[in-house]
Amino acid sequence: MPFRIATFLAASALGGGLATALLNWHYAWLGAWLGAVLWLLLDAWRAQRLLNVLRRDAAGLPSRGPGVWGELSERIRKLLREREQQTRQAEDRLQEFLAAIQASPNGVVLLDEQGRIEWCNQTAAGQFGIDAERDLLQHMANLVRDPAFVAYLASWNYSRDVVIDAQGPQQRSHPARLSVQVHPYAGNRRMLLTRDITSLEQAEAMRRDFVANVSHEIRTPLTVLAGFVETLQNLPLDAEERARYLGLMSQQSHRMETLVNDLLTLSRLEGSAAPPATRWTRMRALMAQCEDEGRGLSSRLSAHGHRLSFSMDADSEIAGAPTELQSAMSNLLSNAIRYTPGGGEVAVSWRLLPDGRGEYAVRDSGPGIAAEHLPRLTERFYRIDRSRSRETGGTGLGLAIVKHIAQRHGAELRIESTLGKGSRFALVFPPARLRQATPLSAVA
């Protein structure tokens, strides 16, 4: 302000001086007045120019000049630069936030007060079968027609979630289940959070099936035992009948014991640490124990026995838990013997594959397995023929145990079978778990 007063007085004095020099001192007042008017006109022109620039495009502000208008222009330029920088930072933070929501495994949909889509991430778009860009400002209830969802969205009672089927095209062959929870915000706006609970529902179904299967498997022998006990208590039996009943009771109790042991084995496998990769066991020793167990089982199950053969292309050492490896190999061999009729062939082999992996395989000449059963053989308590399984003493957990042991050792369980031509079960171990066996003389 002092500068403006000084320039105004200077312009007036300059006008008066020029008038005195050109005319005479009687016209000094006129020159002073004209100088003041010219200063005011110039000042108004500079103010109007600044105003016009602000009206058109603030980015075209002139650089800092003299006077209050130059100072004001510079300060406006500085404020605009700061505001632009803040806007860019806010935009960057918004993009980071949206990118984080896009990366979320859960779906997010923002609805306006009328229930129209303002924004949604790709996860929600895939789950609901909508287009994240094309369907903006479309009513959500018009795009997702599930009656339970439409009623839930219109109820405004969002204290619980609603479970619906996914609508996305990628889910049609394997329908997924979605949990949708709505959260109101900013007045009547709403945020939809979706979560894929397919695996949770499958796990819950598996848990129910598992409990039901265990209860059924244990209840059956218990019922038989209770019946035999009641018979022994209430009926006069001769020695031969009593011995037969006691033998059947022993068979049922052994069946329950086997079932409990298999369940404990599964529980131990699922809850224990990974097997060590530094503990080595000779494959020849594992094969020898399998042979002893296999020949003993064959003689007990069939008077004619089975044609058993055991072959090793190379004596190797394998890293892992010896008891688990022995359990997996014995399970495959015992299954082959149990389901192969007497006189049939069961061949056990160990070989090193060209790529360095090792394969333990059991091939039998049994009845074979239909192709539709193969993907489910490793499920707990899954049986192709329940009556046949009970006759052979199977619990339905053997292949589930083998699968867990294989996974813990980085191995792959392969199953091949043809109806009427037998089956082949193989465990393929990675090269990292194998090494050449140390000669016994070197060890000594």
Q: Could you list some keywords that capture this structure?
A:
single chain, 444 residues, alpha+beta, five-stranded antiparallel beta sheet, five-stranded mixed beta sheet, 13 helices, 13 strands, 53% helix, 17% strand
Number of helices: 13
Share of residues in strands: 15-25%
Helix content: 40-55%
* Low-confidence blocks of residues: none
Shape: elongated
Helix/strand order: HHHEEHHHEEEHHEHEEHEEHHEEEH
Chain oligomer state:
single chain
Largest sheet: 5 strands, antiparallel
Structural class, by secondary structure, is: alpha+beta
What is the distance, rounded to the nearest whole angstrom, between the alpha carbons of the first and last residues? 106 Å
Explained architecture:
The protein is an alpha+beta fold and 444 residues long. It is built from 13 helices and 13 strands. The protein has helices at residues 2-22, 28-56, 67-103, 122-128, 140-143, 147-155, 198-234, 239-271, 283-301, 322-338, 386-392, 398-408, 440-443, and strands at residues 107-111, 117-120, 162-165, 177-185, 189-196, 280-282, 307-312, 316-319, 345-352, 358-364, 412-418, 422-429, 434-436. A 5-stranded antiparallel β-sheet has the order 2-1-5-4-3, with helices on both faces. Strands 7-9-10-12-11 form a 5-stranded mixed β-sheet. Helix 1 crosses helix 2 (28-56) and helix 10 runs antiparallel to helix 12. It is elongated and about 155 Å long. The mean pLDDT is 82.
